[in-house]
Every structure is written in structure tokens, then in C-alpha cells.
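The instructor's notes for this session suggest beginning with a concrete chain rather than abstract definitions. Hand out the sequence below and ask the class to guess, before any prediction is shown, which regions might be ordered.
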Amino acid sequence: MIPTDAYVARGVGSSINLFHPGYCLTILIVAIFPFFFISNLNLEIIKNKIFNRNIIYIFIVFLIYSLLINFVGDFENLRIEGKGAFHKFSIILFENQNIRLLFTLISFFLSIIFIYFTFEDKIDLLIISYFTFLSLFTFPFYQEYLDPLFYILIFSFFKTRFKFEDKKSAYLLVLYFFVFSLSSKYYYQITI
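After discussion, reveal the predicted structure:
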């Protein structure tokens, strides 16, 4: 249940935000990036996933999504706030709108591939797809909406298991999130 004032102010469900599923995936990449290195991936699993039919479906879905964004989406008039770290990097690195759009589309595609390789279980991928679909109707869309939820899902609900066999894995996670938190704080001190 959303209070009436919040519903009206945010326009929940009143429009479809085509760029948000891609930004949702890039936000998830930032949250799960260190888990890729402690996942159970090996060369055999990667080879099986590359030569699997699902990779072709991913390419087709991404191609349709890219065409939809290019012809229906309004990239030039997107709000600056929200949308995660990759959106912030594109704003900092590129002033040309076309290059920013290309960078954004490449980030979206790499995010899909990264998630496909990191998570083994179909139910996990289905949950991620649910949140990606839900982002179509969420406005505004901020990273802080997904981070806590996905940490809870990764450590408790997802069936994909990550290797925490030694202290090095835990140190990697703590260091990554410490640097990420400091860089976010620094970014917002500059921009605000």
C-alpha cells in the first residue's frame, strides 16, 4: 500500500520508464560485483553458458530493448538524479548525448551478461527479472531502493551459493563495499 500523497507525488504506475530496467540491471551489477569472484564459476560452466541457447535469447531481447529505447525512449530529457553508478559515470565522462547513450546501452548489455553468468539458478534469475520489470513503473528510481533488498536476497533467499571458504572472500566484500560507500559519499559531496 502506498499512501495517496506519495502515489500522486511520485506518479507510481502512471507512466512506463523504458530506461529503468537497464538502470536496474546496472545497479544490480554494482551490488553483486564482488560476488562474481566468490561464485562457483569455472571454465566449464562459462563455456556451457556461452554455447547455450539462452545467450541467443539474451541477444534478441537486448536488441529489441535497444531498438525500443532508441525509437521510443527520450534519453536527452532523462532526469539526472538516481539510476545508479553507471549513469553517474556517463554524466561525468561524456558530454555528447550520443556517446552517453552508447555507453549506457553497452552498460545495460554487459549487466545482462554479467547477471547471467553470476547466477546459476533459474529462480534467482526470475526474481531479478521481476525487479527489472517492476522498475518500468517505479519513479524516481534510486540505487538505495535495491541495495538492501538484494543483500538480503543474496545472503538468505537466492539458491546460487557463493564460496565463503576463507577470510579473503569476506575481506574482499568488506573492502569493496567500503570503497563503494566512500566513493558515493565523495560523489555526493561534490555534486550537492
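Then share the key points. The longest helix spans residues 167-191. Residues 4-162 form one domain.
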